[in-house]
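For anyone still unconvinced, we reproduce a single protein record, the chain in one-letter code, the fold tokenised, and leave readers to judge:
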Amino acid sequence: MVKARHKRLILVALAILGVGIAAILAISALRSNLSYFFSPVQVRAGEVPAGAVFRLGGLVVKDSLVRQRDGLTVIFAVTDNAETLQVSYTGILPDLFGEGQGMVAKGRLGEDGVFYAEAVLAKHDESYLPPEVAASLRPAPTEDATGTAAGR
């Protein structure tokens, strides 16, 4: 016969086990939803884990936006003024998306070196730049009086 004290001990052990299992499940669910931010320089340097979903941010390069024949796929370049990366996105772009504007895209890097975006976010007004994008932008090369980029 099981004593009342043993029943309580068994219930406490089961409760602790249940809380532990719930914590493990919650942590694994949170990990699967994480997506880190990388700039084009970091992507080119190989800092992105292979096959990982991550966010890429920078400025859309002027005159780089090309719409494909299907009408939904667009290819454009994103820069942080040091490196440039091609991005392919199939879907409807945000209204404020445009060349020369800041953007953040979530997706994966393909084996061909193209970033395949699942979602594209654009800045929301004329003066705002997402903090991650602003922090990752490198100063643009300046031209000296002769018209050549300084520092080369």
User: Anything to note?
Assistant: The chain has a mean pLDDT of 82.
